[in-house]
Design goal:
Number of strands: 6
Strand order of the largest sheet: 1-2-6-5
Largest sheet: 4 strands, mixed
Strand content: 25-35%
Radius of gyration: 17 Å
Shape: globular
Low-confidence stretches: none
Helix content: 25-40%
Distance between the termini: 27 Å
Oligomer: single chain
Length: 164
């Protein structure tokens, strides 16, 4: 069931009612992360999990410097400054480990995957080749859990579950 609306809509949902909660590319754009995560914890079943997709700072710096040629923006990110998204406003970075803190210790990270490790670093004209997407998907799947590649992926996909 997809819930359309903000945190107020989520508050209407009963406790322990969902096996899976998805929150993809949202937390960077809001200020009340703790409050939202607390609501996710409340509506998750005890054996459920939370799926978070978030920007990965190192991957974003790689893309800015290598693909977009935006050296100034890469340096701003390295200095800890926020950057703006063309469509969504200010992106407020946070570390993967902050998710457990936002949950007040109720959730722990089970797995972290790298997403778009190489995809965003390819020239757009290459992406039109007939078998490019299939090969790129295979490559991405090969490296999604390898730390040296996961750490430079553009996004992180984090799976959290209730702390045991």
């Amino acid at each position: 069931k997809q819930i359309k609306g903000g945190i107020d809509k989520l508050r209407e949902m009963p406790d322990n009612s969902y096996d899976v909660v998805l929150c993809h590319n949202v937390l960077e754009y809001i200020k009340n992360r703790e409050e939202l995560i607390h609501e996710f914890v409340r509506v998750m079943k005890s054996d459920g999990f939370l799926s978070i997709v978030k920007h990965n700072k190192a991957g974003k710096i790689m893309q800015k410097a290598v693909f977009e040629y935006k050296i100034d923006e890469a340096m701003e990110l390295l200095r800890g400054e926020d950057v703006k998204s063309l469509n969504f406003g200010t992106i407020r970075e946070y570390d993967d480990s902050d998710l457990a803190l936002y949950s007040r210790g109720c959730l722990s990270i089970e797995k972290t995957f790298g997403v778009r490790t190489f995809f965003a670093l390819q020239r757009n004209e290459v992406k039109r080749e007939e078998d490019w997407l299939q090969k790129m998907f295979q490559l991405e799947c090969m490296v999604e859990e390898r730390p040296e590649f996961r750490d430079i992926a553009f996004f992180h996909h984090i799976i959290l579950s209730h702390t045991k």
